[in-house]
């Protein structure tokens, strides 16, 4: 069974902390994505990566960075967490060109920043 | 630029009733269209997708969707809703746009099922 796993389902951090969200996929997909999901706003793309060490900004990259050192792993980093980054974070992966094939999603990490 | 509109934020239906969730898209060429479902506390799961061919697409869990180019729509339907269908539903459009190959999601429709 294909899988996208995320390191934590729930995370509570304090303002100013550095936060790492990890995502691993076992499907040998080239593309990996980080989304933020907030009520009424749907999914907003933070960053995506189409290859190892490659990354592209999405719609809302401010306050975030990413790392992709291995094909199967894509990390989202909050350098200095703020309360407005409290949200659900979803990782996804896909084959080929992203738009032309379905995305597979992880279960999400609900992050609370106090 | 591509965009997706899901006009209904919430839809409430009774169990056993039929369902239609609306999705309108904007895209300059033939779109690639998707419907995903998100059960409470879960990630998104693909219900169905349309690339080309027959405009009526069958998906999992008894769902279907119809692509109507003239109306720029890709509405999701189910003839008889079950309580387990209560979830958030997302329509997405994909395609090359400005060199990117990134799908665009609608804001979602929350389905509430009454017994």
Describe the structure.
The complex is a heterodimer of chains A (114) and B (115). Chain A has 114 residues and is mostly beta strands. Chain A is built from no helices and eleven strands. In chain A, 0% of the residues lie in helices and 54% in strands. In chain A, strands 2, 4, 5, 6, 9, 10 and 11 form a seven-stranded mixed beta sheet that branches. Chain A is globular and about 40 Å long. The model of chain B has no long low-confidence stretch (mean pLDDT 90). Classes of the chains: A mainly beta (114), B mainly beta (115). At the A-B interface, strand 5 of A face strand 5 and strand 6 of B.
Low-confidence spans of chain A: none
What structural class do helix, strand and pairing data of chain B support?
Answer: mainly beta
- Which chain pair shows the most residues in contact? A-B, 22 and 24 residues
Taking the sheet with the most strands of chain A, its summary is: 7 strands, mixed
The portion of residues forming beta strands of chain A comes to over 45%
Instruction: Give the ordered list of helices and strands of chain A.
Output: EEEEEEEEEEE
What helical percentage do the residues of chain B reach?
Answer: under 10%
- Estimate the strand proportion of chain B: over 45%
Largest sheet of chain B: 6 strands, mixed
Number of distinct helices of chain A = 0
Alpha-carbon Rg of chain B, integer: 14 Å
- Category from helices, strands and their pairing of chain A: mainly beta
Overall morphology of chain B: globular
Radius of gyration of chain A: 13 Å
The CA-CA distance between the termini of chain A, in Å, is 36 Å
Report the total helices of chain B: 0
Count of individual beta strands of chain A: 11
